[in-house]
Amino acid sequence: MLRLPNFEVRTPERLDEAVALLAELGEGARVIAGGTDLVPNMKHELFTPRVLVSLARLPELRGIGDAGPGWLRIGAMTSLADVAADARVEQHAPALAQAAGLVAGPQLRTMGTLGGNVLLDTRCQWYNQTYFWREALGFCLKKDGTLCHVVEGGSKCVAAASNDTAPALMTVRAELVFAGPDGRRVTPIDDLWIADGIANKKCGRDEILVEVRLPHSGSGHRGAYGKLRDRGSIDFPLLGVAVKLELNTEDAVADADVVLTALQARPVRIKRASELLRGVRIGTEAFLAAARGVAEQAHKQAHPMPNIPGDADWRRAMVPVYVRRTLEAAATRAGPVHAV
Amino acid sequence: MRVLNLLINGDRVEVAAPEHWTLLEVLRYELGLTGSKQGCDKGDCGACTVLLDGKPVLACLTLAALCEGRAVTTIEGLLPAHVKAGGTGPDPVQAAFDECGALQCGFCQPGMMLSARALLDRNACPTRAEIKDALAGNLCRCTGYTQIFEAVELAIARRIGIEPAPRAWEAQRMPADEAERRAREFAEARERQKEPR
Ligand SMILES: Cc1cc2nc3c(=O)[nH]c(=O)nc-3n(C[C@H](O)[C@H](O)[C@H](O)COP(=O)(O)OP(=O)(O)OC[C@H]3O[C@@H](n4cnc5c(N)ncnc54)[C@H](O)[C@@H]3O)c2cc1C
Ligand code: SF4
Ligand code: FES
Ligand code: FES
Fold first, then answer.
1. Is the ipTM, as predicted for this complex, more than 0.90?
2. How far is CA A186 from CA A183, A208, A216, A278, B133, in A?
3. Which residue segment(s) compose the domain that A303 sits in?
């Protein structure tokens, strides 16, 4: 049995009220969306806020719809199940729909939100444990301690970004709309990340993610998500691969993007993916060769660590395999890539 | 403490509970509804699955304070709801699990049957793949799942009045072509039900 520490719950009905509440309560408060990340973490005493501010009653954070010409908006409180099943998301960002559909299991996708997924805490097998367990090992840098169990002598936490939707959102150049004490700010999701496992996002404790915006895609857009995990049903990613291809009228690649997650503290963009694939027509030998080139580049860039479960060497060996398969799946609209 | 108004298995319930309790704790330790199991207590296993406004959720991660006014169905509510709707005996999902021996220790069953009930409520004739997807968040340490999937298929067959496909153990005891034919007939009959008439 894992008891939650004591706290009080507030359920503001308006966004400005929620923002003011967070500003007033300061460090003692935390936002709760679906609670599927926060509640287990609180049971493990990783966070012990005095007050939880629920976003459940804020109308601005709900629903999927238009955000001005050429943009789709997804309210931060939209459940992952709704993101995965939405025809507009499927049309404009197939990789996102696939990634959302592969998060955890069905109950957690009904409860968990897109906003909570974007703002998911980093994960590490030495951190996502009970207080008792962590104490027995003398804690670690990320919480209550002074050393890292992953990198011996390391002074920087390397807990892994493990949110499936983040890399998919990066490939489609999504933007995030935050509301805070100084009003609203819009930031490209690429600029959210910091390579620091302790806090891998530039987002204040007093800020609320209101919505995620995606540019509409054209008819040449292809996307796919590949996910490696132990149990196909409920596990966090051991590796996540999001792919975008933009095809021209001849079905040749005009632009491409590949972003990996579950390796290090922030999602990793594979260098030269667009350069290696540009001009190549899908369904040809040349495409397969170019995809292998991108896979090799990913293998060079990816250095999984024993931060999350799964043998690190095996996870590294799977990087080129999943990159290649996910590129092929994007080209043929056969995603997601998910073997178990 | 907080006073909560909940609609539990069709009954309006007013219950006082500590502000930081989960829905699972309120069900088990305030209301005595111990059918919802406390397994991992952190979102992994699905033993605590209940229906919140008809959808399966994990009660161990749901704050009771955020359930004000909402409808909760626990395993204790399936039989009364079935009887109230004019049926006799347990819910057909429960009866099928019983008949198929879809359990050993039984710990996963309440959650498993609620996920199955919610699936059949939104999709009367799911395929084996759809059943697997819907039950993916309910772990069973004992059965190997086969009898569980067969139980859901038995409930489907009963509802639409067709012969179920032979269960794995039955198929082993009959000629292979007969087992195949019956499995095919079941799949075809289920597909016909799916087609809009
Ligand atoms: C068994 C299990 C398996 C899981 N598997 C996966 C998986 O495979 N992939 C994956 O990506 N995730 C997984 N998760 C994690 C989680 O379920 C999802 O990431 C989910 O999307 C989190 O959303 P939430 O609404 O529940 O977030 P919450 O838990 O409510 O919040 C998460 C964090 O974000 C903050 N937050 C949430 N919304 C906002 C907002 N709008 N503004 C400001 N701050 C906010 C919270 O304060 C908190 O710090 C799993 C969880 C469990 C328990
Ligand atoms: S990477 Fe090191 S410091 Fe960070 S959570 Fe894991 S053990 Fe702790
Ligand atoms: S007890 Fe809730 S998921 Fe295991
Ligand atoms: S019957 Fe024992 S866990 Fe399923």
1. yes
2. 10, 12, 17, 30, 36
3. 221-332
